[in-house]
Amino acid sequence: MSTELGLAVKRRSATPSSGTNIRRDHSIKQVEVSKLVDIDLCIGCKACEVACKEWNDLEVEETHNFGSYQSHEDLTASTWDLMRFNEVELEGNDIAWLIRKDSCLHCEEPGCLLACPAPGAVVQYENGIVDFDQDNCIGCQYCVSGCPFDIPRFDSRTKKVYKCTMCVDRVTNGLEPACVKACPTGSIRFGTKEDMTIYGEEKVSKLKARGFDDAVLYDPEGVKGLHMMYVVPRGEMLEEYGLPNEPTVRGASFFPVMSGLRKLGSLATWAGLFGAGLFFLRTGRRFPPPEDEALASAREKGRETDMRSPGETDGKGGERS
Amino acid sequence: VSVRPEQESGVLRYSLLERVVHWLVAIAFIYLMLSGFALGYPRATWLYDVLGGGQTVRFVHPIVGVAFTLGVVLMLVVWLRDMAFDGSDRAWARDLPSYVREGHSRVDVGRFNAGQKGYFWFSVATGVLLLVSGLPLWFPGLMTGGWNQLARLVHHALFLLTVGGFIIHVYMSTVMLPGTMPGMTGGRVTRAWAAWHHPGWFRKQEAGRN
Fold first, then answer.
1. From A298, which residue of chain B is nearest by alpha-carbon distance?
2. Closest partner CB to A297 (pick from B54, B191, B196)
């Protein structure tokens, strides 16, 4: 595992031409990193949850029993990592106990970033990490609507949105994310995207050899791949794991329309302003004629109106009676 | 020199109430337009700084939006009768090319011409639709995912339409037709202006005075 240190920014939200790569050879990129969650090895111990809370110094939230092994019912603004437990009955009196680490998947095509209207509130680094910069967040929650995995959470006290940072502060200093370090079985792994993909594909073929015919490496094309992939033994049950079969940026079909509308809008606005200026230069200001002329014209029009509708009294012209 | 009522010249075009409602809507609209550009266009995000920061804009924009729509509703109440379309409006619309050329219609126009009426009803319609399409953006929990993006799209499209209307409205009332603006500030216009642009309404005013 080797990652280049430092953070080059790939994209910033609401920032035109946000690429900053000045390297002469654009093929020399910062190494892309990825987590990989091998669900086959996960024992549901929640050490990753604790490590996440601890490293990120997040408030501890009281739990309650709601009939599940799950610690909390849902992610919150200060719970960025949650083990989700789902029991599914299978044919023949069998049961599948599905356990999945739920946290930000760091999409290569991040719906949160694309939806965000605040410059620099969402940043995607060259290494693949998608991070929120709360200083720039305006609290509109468009990212929540844009995320296909329902990850970002709004905090009503700070009026900002929070999620897993992939421990970007650790990663830039050559360390693995806290959840990876805490995992006792090696279920959560961390490395280059390339290495993790190789590991994942090998693991999938091993699972298939063991009879998990539908095992998959979850790295969906709809979001151009993930920087937290899953090895899913029961690939036929993605939805039951809480993983969308074909995730895309929410409302993605509206994005091209929106961007077209933006272009049209700015063009039309400028055209309108220039058009008004040109119209002015062509026609100038239209002063009313001297008072006696204007009055004569008004009286003349009154006579014409009266002739057309004889019953009407003077002064009703053009008005509803 | 103090100006006593009998010394005031010209014709009363807009009552105090009408002017208050107009400027309530106008000021709200200008804020909404500027903050809307910031929210909708990455290249206009510098407007966040002018308007007190992004978080402030996000907080204030919807509230001003409600004020705007309330103002529009007031406007509807105040002007409903005068803004009803009638027979002369068809003639005015037919005469539109010469109105654009000359800045003056040959039709015997009443208090408002068909263009003003059209802009009024356009403002009422967009004012209501902007609030409706803005609600899911104000409270993102109301709808999920793609619906919010659709609401954004609709809100943006309506916004652009109003910007177009606004440019025309401001150009015509300040630059193109001198003498119009005093009607909306002090309330009075010259007799020449009134007789020239709104002859039917002017005759009625004169008849009422005598």
1. B199
2. B196
| Closest chain A residue to B37, measured at CA | A266
Cα distance between residue A71 and residue A52, in whole Å: 14
pLDDT band at A31 (very low <50, low <70, confident <90, very high): confident
Give A45: exposed, middle or buried? Use CB within 10 Å, 0-12, 13-18, 19+: middle
Strands (E), A213-319: 216-218, 228-232
- pLDDT for A16 equals 79
Pairing state between β A188-192 and A95-102: unpaired
ipTM of the assembly?
Answer: 0.85
Residues of chain B in contact with residue A115, where contact means CB-CB under 8 angstroms, are: 149
CA distance B24 to chain A (A): 24
Q: Write the secondary structure of chain B as one string of H (helix), E (strand) and C (coil).
A: CCCCHHHCCCEECCCHHHHHHHHHHHHHHHHHHHHHHHHHCHHHCHHHHHCCCHHHHHHHHHHHHHHHHHHHHHHHHHHCCCCCCCHHHHHHHHCHHHHHHHCCCCCCCCCCCHHHHHHHHHHHHHHHHHHHHHHHHHCHHHCCCHHHHHHHHHHHHHHHHHHHHHHHHHHHHHHHCCCCHHHHHCCEECHHHHHHHCHHHHHHHHHHHC
Contacting residues of B for A276, CB less than 8 Å apart: 167-168, 171, 175
**Spatial separation of the C-alpha atoms in residues B92 and B105, rounded to whole Å:** 7
Restricting to A residues 81-140, those with a Cβ less than 8 Å away from any Cβ of B are 115, 117-119, 121, 136-140
- Determine the residue of chain B that is closest to A18 in CA distance: B42
**Average model confidence (pLDDT) for chain A?**
90
**Cβ contact, residue pair A140, B193, below 8 Å:** no
User: Taking the model in full, what pTM does it have?
Assistant: 0.88
pLDDT in tens, A44-87: 999 999 999 999 999 999 999 999 999 999 999 999 999 999 99
Span A101-120, pLDDT tens digits: 999 999 999 999 999 999 99
**pLDDT score for A252:** 78
Whether residue A242 contacts residue A84, with contact meaning beta carbons closer than 8 Å, is answered with yes
A280 interfaces chain B, CB cutoff of 8 Å: yes
| A302 touching chain B per CB within 8 A | yes
Residues B43, A319: C-beta atoms closer than 8 Å:
no
Q: Which residues of B touch A112 (CB under 8 A)?
A: none
**Does the pLDDT at position A319 exceed 50?**
no
- Rounded to a whole number, what is the distance in angstroms from the first to the last CA of chain A? 86
Reported as a single tens digit per residue, the pLDDT across B147-163 is: 888 899 999 999 999 99
Give the pLDDT of residue B153.
Answer: 93
Question: Cβ B150–A141 below 8 Å, yes or no?
Answer: no
Scanning every residue of chain A, which has its alpha carbon at the shortest distance from the alpha carbon of B174? A285
